[in-house]
Write a structure and sequence with these properties.
The protein contains five helices and seven strands; from the N terminus they run αβαβαββαβββα. It has a single domain (2-162), classed as Dihydrodipicolinate Reductase, domain 2 (2-Layer Sandwich), CATH 3.30.360.10. By secondary structure, it is α/β, with parallel strands linked by helices. Helix content is 25%, strand content 23%.
Amino acid sequence: MQLPLVPLLEARLIEPDGIVIDAKSGVSGAGRSAKLNLLYTEVAEGINAYGVGSHRHMPEIEQGLADAAGGGAAVRVSFTPHLMPMARGMLSTIYVSLTEGATADDLRACLARRYAGERFVHVLEAGQAPHTRHVRGSNHALISVHADRVRGRAIVLCAIDNLMKGASGQAVQNLNLMMGWDEGLGLGAAAMFP
């Protein structure tokens, strides 16, 4: 969620208040504990929201975005995750209000500039939308921007593998950078369990 939003807030292209994030996550995003709602028979053939209005990650999301917005701007986010019948992956659909004069094309151009040359973050061409299967088992993130039919709004999509870019792969990438090693060390052939 922060990959596409931080650059847009820093560039003052979107309003910091009223961001809506609708995220779809694989079952591994909810942990590995033996809970009734995580059993295959409970997850298969359906989708359900959890942590509605009070998800534990909301404060850290708002803190990171407030830092990007700078100047003490209050960032208010509505975030609802949904459990999908897949083992891994996350697709975030993010609804934003544009600042005066900004367009969806401006958002896409900003993200393309920010992530140009980045090994693991890719901004898709206009009209394309990311799929979780395109990042499965990888440390890659795919981002797209779309004009909303509602004037002054845009829709930003971001797909990651929650077990890689969302967790262990990101940790390995950060370690590599901290140690001065090649950024992709250990990330070329990810294990696929689950």
